[in-house]
Amino acid sequence: YAVGGWADAYSNTVPRLLANLKCPKKGLVGPWAHKYPHFGKPGPRIGFLQETLRWWDHWLKGKDTGIMDEPQYRVWMQESIKPLPFYDERPGRWVAEPTWPSPRIQHAEWFLNAEGLSLAAGPTQSCLIQTPQHMGAQQGEWFSFGFVPDGPADQRHDDGASVVFDSAPLAESLEILGAPVLTLRLSSDRPNAFIAARLNDVAPDGASTRVSYGVLNLTHRDSHEHPEALLPHHTYEIRLQLNDAAHAFSQGHKIRVSLSNTLWPLLWPSPEVVSLRLESGVSRLSLPIRDDTSGDDTLAAFSMPEAAPPQSATSIEPDLFTRVVERDEANGMTRSTVVIDSGMTRLDAHGWEQGSVSTETFEICDDDPNSNKASVHWSTRCNRQQMSVRTRTETNSSLASTPTEFLFRASLEAFEDEERIYVKQWEERFPRDLN
Fold first, then answer.
1. Domain residue ranges in the chain
2. Of 41, 49, 32, 104, nearest to 72 (Cα)?
3. Interatomic CA distance for residues 57 and 400, integer angstroms
4. What is the pLDDT of residues 53-103, one digit of tens each?
5. Could you tell me which of 339, 321, 186 has the C-alpha nearest to residue 259?
6. Architecture of domain 106-289 in CATH?
7. Would you call 113 helix, strand, or coil by DSSP?
8. Coil, strand or helix: which one is 217?
């Protein structure tokens, strides 16, 4: 029984397991990030513990819980919503497919034409893709736990720096379930490049909500195991599969495909400034359309969430989360800083106090992909006043690059009552190997 969430970094795991396992199987994907469904966010939450008990009672105790009589794949069909980096709940409804992959899913092709996204192919034209090095600052964290505003924000800013293809406003709502796939005919002026694609839901007021995205190092176009450099200016047809999604585009909204060859700081830049050329009219998007909704209205409701009561704890310092993007126009530098401060908490049963602060910093300069720098500082504190125990660790790590190498540095310090009792430092260089 594979369980996941659309806001989790591992959202593709469940459908891929269902598609490839040769055994009794079930899949469940809710709106959650990387937390259990009985307390995860975004909601709605479900009685996950009761659901797992039904599974184990069936397979370990031979009880007839009815769980294997239900549809194989059940997901939360998310609806159009204002783009925000945090949601307490995502509007939508539970839907299900008897099997996955499902023969009920129909694939519709939309062509990336010079004038926009259309069901009919337009004339072939060459489109330049050369996006700014700092494009991508609205994408949020790759790995989210769902409790702080670290998800993708309004995509309009990043869309404005990308090559976009919009559909006309939809005459009626359109539901997708599965992995959108792009077939792109393109060339590169450099032997090493990547392409990033985002599928967005654009509201009538222009707000752009990310539905799915996908990236591909173009040297991996034929194989991840045996990458090959690109032949400059040679046209390739590449297949780019985006993350699985379950989304209902509202009537009057537009479907948008946004293409870029940078996605900072989510992706490390290419070793050189790259220009891609896309052939519009023949490049296309395949959407997994879910028109057959039979059975959705008869799905059994999940139980209400249940859990053991948490340990009694007292907050002695407040938590804090900030995500700041700064632009230095004088020097053409962009900086993104993420601070995650858990505060300080005391466990009442024995007085143990714990807390941590992490600071992620990313910097990049215009037109210089090798100016990119990433660093993380993490401080943890653990105290027990009754035993006069006060400990702290400080870790630092940084990553930089040249056109041929990655440079990694790290350090670890441990303190007891402010006396440093341990220190270690690392420095390693790694060949980029077409990355």
1. 2-104, 106-289, 313-431
2. 104
3. 51
4. 999 999 999 999 999 999 999 999 999 999 999 999 999 999 999 999 999
5. 186
6. Sandwich (2.60)
7. strand
8. strand
